[in-house]
Inverse folding.
């Protein structure tokens, strides 16, 4: 009974670390009690399916070391899953800047910072797609499989793991620029157009007059390319389980 409780506690700590960083579940308006209860129930369901042997934990310090290790694994897996939403935040900031909406930031209901309208739109779109694609079910299966690659007290840091995390992090800027590319293009066209007008009509306030056109053209293009944005988000979301398993495999030395 003592061994089963310790295994449950280790699973609970890993899933709690995952939920602490995982998008949607880590939102500021997501109740902490619900998050803790969700982690406890998930650990209770997953623990009987694990074919894991508990390492030697003769002292209290050894138990705390294992708990800290499991928490770190959960945080790392959650960070890998959150990279997609980091890319969305970067894309939204670029879109808002190009549309002239940077000064109209409002409080983010899902976080503790300020965000622009494009950021909220992309976050809600990604959240809807996340559950529509049943990715919450796939992530539960991925979490259970992570113990096959990264068992208790069988993980270690390595250079391939560090390279993998850096590569995943660098994808934030690549995916973000790809999502914001249409808005960047139309903003460039408007800038060039008003630059030519400014040369032809020196009395014209090019900087002030271009703001309305940037916002209007950006809103129209954002509406026309929302399907393309959704496809980018879907492709990025579908890679989350595979990327999480890859990191778990590298944690286990695979």
């Amino acid at each position: 009974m003592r061994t089963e409780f310790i295994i449950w506690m280790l699973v609970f700590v890993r899933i709690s670390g995952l939920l602490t960083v995982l998008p949607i579940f880590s939102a500021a308006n997501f109740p902490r009690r619900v998050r803790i209860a969700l982690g406890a129930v998930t650990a209770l369901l997953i623990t009987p399916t694990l074919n894991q042997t508990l390492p030697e934990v003769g002292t209290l310090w050894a138990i705390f070391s294992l708990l800290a290790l499991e928490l770190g694994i959960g945080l790392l897996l959650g960070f890998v899953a959150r990279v997609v939403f980091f890319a969305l935040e970067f894309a939204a900031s670029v879109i808002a800047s190009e549309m002239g909406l940077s000064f109209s930031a409002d409080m983010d209901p899902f976080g503790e910072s300020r965000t622009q309208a494009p950021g909220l739109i992309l976050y809600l779109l990604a959240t809807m797609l996340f559950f529509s694609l049943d990715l919450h079910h796939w992530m539960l299966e991925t979490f259970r499989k992570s113990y096959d690659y990264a068992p208790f007290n069988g993980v270690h840091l390595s250079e391939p793991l560090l390279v993998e995390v850096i590569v995943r992090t660098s994808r934030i800027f690549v995916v973000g620029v790809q999502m914001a590319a249409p808005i960047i293009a139309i903003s460039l066209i408007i800038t060039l157009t008003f630059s030519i007008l400014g040369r032809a009509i020196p009395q014209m306030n090019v900087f002030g007059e271009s703001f309305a056109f940037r916002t209007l053209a950006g809103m129209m293009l954002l509406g026309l390319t929302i399907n393309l944005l959704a496809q980018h988000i879907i492709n990025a979301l579908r890679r989350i389980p595979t990327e999480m398993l890859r990191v778990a495999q590298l944690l286990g030395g695979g």
User: Anything to note?
Assistant: The beta strands are 106-107, 114-115. The first strand starts at residue 106 and ends at 107.
